[in-house]
Design goal:
Length: 366
């Protein structure tokens, strides 16, 4: 009997090793997530890393890497010599974000969001049930139906009655209209804590998830600071924090206006924020207070949450600050909307986002 000897995995021997270009591209894409899509800055960082850690060889240097990026369509350069990433790189960043977050879900035991509910839907299940008036005849289990008939009457007295019919169950996948709100106020990078990079990465991953797997869904991005504005999916890698206050009310108003135009019955808002609304507009003027929670500002936000609830819009808040008084505000917001809230760490923000999104894909319809 031949013995089996186990050894440590060696990519050179047991699999295809990454080329010099692929290895540098992987690092370059990571850097782009921290530079908000600034290709020139990412390349400067990559050059410094090469000096410090010897990432390149005599055969393939940073200059060769840049030329290969241009050749393969990851990088473009204008007449003035300014470099920028292309649509191919934007898509690659979204795919990378999606892969990273779902890899975290698998490692942590999350991600198997199975909902064994059945209903009047599209995806056929192996289970069957008795026929009911109004069932789609295309879902008829012909084998099960004929078996029931033969067992009841035999081959000589074969007849088909209503009790013989079996219908395949189906798994109903709902269509969702989602607005993702991202807080771009200055507090997202305050005190040296980078909250915007994981928020941006999560937004890119969510966009790629919907574009690739839920094509009938809609996703709109709303950024909010002193005001609120829409952001296209292709611009997600470039989101930056500004010298803004936090106008949560304006963000919810813009999200509600967008969802009102959508035909989907299932509408929801995902809001990534550090929790503290600090301004709103009234009578054309900006009212600001960055010190603590101003009840005048907070009440306006809670009023907007109630309006969302009345229109059937669920708000899920992903709170990425640990201050107890800010968490109390999020609880008040959640109660007003009858929505959901997650008090996520920066490392697990993406996990919470996708657990909630995928879990709500399937509903039990009776």
């Amino acid at each position: 009997m031949q013995a089996v000897r186990y050894t440590q995995w060696d990519p050179e021997r047991h699999g295809r090793a990454m080329t010099d270009f692929e290895r540098l591209l992987d690092i370059f894409q990571q850097l782009l997530q921290y530079t908000a899509g600034d290709a020139a800055e990412a390349l400067r960082w990559l050059t410094e890393l090469d000096k410090a850690h010897g990432l390149t060889s005599d055969d393939f240097g940073i200059g060769d890497f840049i030329e290969e990026l241009k050749k393969q369509g990851y990088l473009k350069e204008d007449a003035a010599g300014t470099v920028a990433i292309t649509a191919r790189t934007e898509r690659a960043l979204r795919q990378r974000s999606l892969q990273e977050i779902f890899r975290q879900l698998r490692k942590s035991g999350r991600g198997a969001h199975q909902t064994p509910y059945a209903g009047a839907g599209d995806e056929r299940l192996p289970e069957t049930r008795a026929w009911r008036f109004g069932d789609d005849p295309h879902r008829l289990d012909i084998t099960g139906t004929l078996s029931n008939s033969y067992r009841r009457g035999g081959i000589r007295n074969w007849t088909l009655t209503e009790e013989d019919y079996r219908i395949y169950e189906t798994d109903h996948a709902t269509h969702q209209a989602t607005v993702l709100m991202i807080d771009l106020s200055h507090s997202m990078v305050l005190y040296g804590e980078d909250r915007i990079t994981p928020a941006r990465k999560t937004a890119m991953a969510l966009a790629e998830l919907i574009l690739s797997r839920y094509r009938h869904d809609t996703l709109d991005i709303v950024a909010f600071g002193n005001d609120a504005w829409e952001v296209s999916i292709k611009d997600l890698p470039y989101l930056k924090v500004g010298p803004f206050y936090t106008n949560t009310r304006a963000g919810l108003q813009r999200a509600r206006d967008i969802l009102r135009r959508r035909r989907n019955r299932n509408r929801q808002i995902f809001m990534i924020t550090d929790g503290k609304p600090s301004c709103h507009k009234e009578h054309g003027r900006m009212y600001r207070n960055a010190f603590g929670l101003d009840r005048k500002i907070v009440n306006k936000v809670l009023d907007e949450a109630v309006l969302c609830r009345r229109e059937g819009i669920t708000i899920t808040t992903f709170m990425i600050a640990r201050d107890p008084y800010l968490q109390r505000f999020v609880r008040d917001l959640t109660e007003a909307n009858q929505g959901r809230a997650y008090y996520a760490s920066l490392e697990r923000l993406g996990e919470f986002i996708f657990e909630d999104f995928v879990r709500n894909r399937r509903k039990h319809l009776r």
